[in-house]
Amino acid sequence: MKVKVAINGYGTIGKRVADAVSKQDDMEVIGVTKTKPDFEAKMAIRKGYKLYCAIPENLELFESAGIRVEGTVDDLINKADIVVDCSPGKVGAQNKPMYEKAGVKAIFQGGEKKDVAELSFNALANYEKAVGKNYVRVVSCNTTGLVRVLYLLDTNFGIEKVRAVMIRRVVDPKEDKKGLVNGIMPDPVKLPSHHGPDVQTVLPHIDITTVAFKVPTTLMHVHSLNVQLKEKASEDDVIDVFEKEPRILLVSKDDGFTSTAKIIEWARELRIRYDLFENVVWRDSIAVVGNELYLTQAIHQEAIVVPENIDAIRAMLEMADKEESIRKTNESLDIGKFQI
Amino acid sequence: MKVKVAINGYGTIGKRVADAVSKQDDMEVIGVTKTKPDFEAKMAIRKGYKLYCAIPENLELFESAGIRVEGTVDDLINKADIVVDCSPGKVGAQNKPMYEKAGVKAIFQGGEKKDVAELSFNALANYEKAVGKNYVRVVSCNTTGLVRVLYLLDTNFGIEKVRAVMIRRVVDPKEDKKGLVNGIMPDPVKLPSHHGPDVQTVLPHIDITTVAFKVPTTLMHVHSLNVQLKEKASEDDVIDVFEKEPRILLVSKDDGFTSTAKIIEWARELRIRYDLFENVVWRDSIAVVGNELYLTQAIHQEAIVVPENIDAIRAMLEMADKEESIRKTNESLDIGKFQI
């Protein structure tokens, strides 16, 4: 008996979560929603997902485009064991009363404020706390990337302090209505960026300050981390820890990975849509100076939260313990199979 | 008995041709070459291709990187029925004496001058002329995109004159050493761009003038075409012709295809590496003004020549006639299956 998952919002995150759910042996996608009958709606149908209209007033648009919908979002969530809300930032909070009324559990994404849910979630860091919860928020791509690495460093060596500089892709590749094509934008100008406080929603005891900039690229975010460790650790000690974690992928300049452009070129062969569910850490960037660790990592903003959504489903519906869920998610998504 | 294909140069074109050859039931990849032991070399091995060193002096580099090579490019081509030369522009011509010495047929890419080969090739336009030939050049991405459309228009309605403006992606996505991030570059400033004369290497009777510009994107080229037709044709007549040709894919703004960004977003779901082997023509851009046809098309520079290379192999080795080869190529690469 598979648990029934509804995907509310079949966009950048929703389409990836839908495909990932479909690859699990203990859950199924019972339907996805779209607001408009565009190529993504047609792709959902092509892939065999049942399509529902996210905005009842737009039903006519689908009809006149000749696209069959099964009903509206209400019809969908009433059949679901859990909803993964993948609507744009802030819309998730607007949707919450609907989930409450239907009495259905819901997962929100990192574009929502933390108080939309009972818990901000990362599978490595706090899977157990999500067990049985009704509303959980999977933290954003940058925060997920930070939390994974910081959790590993903290549990292995202890963390005194973190200073992180985020160099962010300005928009996702499909975006053609906004952007920044010739500049570097401090975002925000005044410290801290929201990422530090957001990390603390998952790892409250970590002392972290983050600064962020947007730059003209769509491919990935890059993080330059400085982590003051409590215990002395060598570069090899850190590499050992990362090599054991499937959700961290170590790459090297010697293999031709001179930029995110090359990482994505490689990923285009590995997974459809060049999805990288792993933190991509440059092995050669790992440097210990005194008691401070430096490292550079790249985060695929469209894909990295996907495994976290799958694990959140299992935790909230009490389908598996942490170790089993992560193992199943990793195996089904080929996480940990691309070490180079 | 499958014909033995060697791929000399496993880069942007080579890796795609290798995968496409592997999908045919009448040919096989007997090996690929790389100059350096980078991630692309490791990917070739991961995919099961036998790797050969393209530059004998670099054998040591592969050894010290722990990458097993089967030998050098000479060893490879001596076992081949045909070589697909996918080395960077101008290097193909340097390689030709090696192929002549080995007595092996060879296909060159559009980065070479036309006199490297006996024939400049496009499957729709002049498959028959390549039958039995020893040296054939598959024309470049932009020229392939132009030739396909012009061949169809010419055979159906007759062409008086063509005026084409090419708006070109500045570099391929993996490129991080050169580019143009903030400008529009007439390339060349003085008319014509090389594309017009290059079209005439395949369709010598077409009166065509081309102008080209580079712009800061990596995703696709876009062509704005003006074609003066001999016979009166309506917009629907043109659409009918395009709808019957699998290598032309019609898309529409109504489906959300507002830019190449959206076309690629869609393609990321369709094929690995988001390869688009088809000309992507905006249906809504097809307009007849007097006896002049206007249309806008997008050309995926990394992928569009791939089916042409497969058809060139069949023609040169006399394995199939035009219709059969194109049918097999299209079927194996899902060309013609993504009409929206």
TrEMBL record, chains A, B:
Residues reported to bind NAD(+): 12-13, 111, 169, 301
Class in the EC hierarchy, top level: oxidoreductase
Keywords annotated in UniProt: Cytoplasm, Glycolysis, NAD, NADP, Oxidoreductase
Ranges of residues in domain Glyceraldehyde 3-phosphate dehydrogenase NAD(P) binding: 3-141
Biological or metabolic pathway of the protein: Carbohydrate degradation; glycolysis; pyruvate from D-glyceraldehyde 3-phosphate: step 1/5
Amino-acid positions noted as binding D-glyceraldehyde 3-phosphate in the UniProt annotation, renumbered to this chain: 140-142, 195-196
Gene Ontology cellular-component terms listed: cytoplasm
Pfam families xref list: DapB_N, Gp_dh_C
Signal peptide: none
EC numbers, comma separated: 1.2.1.59
Active site: 141
GO biological process terms, semicolon-separated: glycolytic process; lysine biosynthetic process via diaminopimelate
GO MF assignments: 4-hydroxy-tetrahydrodipicolinate reductase; glyceraldehyde-3-phosphate dehydrogenase (NAD+) (phosphorylating) activity; glyceraldehyde-3-phosphate dehydrogenase (NADP+) (phosphorylating) activity; NAD binding; NADP binding
Main subcellular location of this protein, as a coarse class: cytoplasm
Subcellular location field: Cytoplasm
NCBIfam families xref list: GAPDH-II_archae, PRK04207.1
Oligomer and partners: Homotetramer.
Family membership: Belongs to the glyceraldehyde-3-phosphate dehydrogenase family.
Name of the protein described by the UniProt record: Glyceraldehyde-3-phosphate dehydrogenase
Organism: Archaeoglobus profundus (strain DSM 5631 / JCM 9629 / NBRC 100127 / Av18)
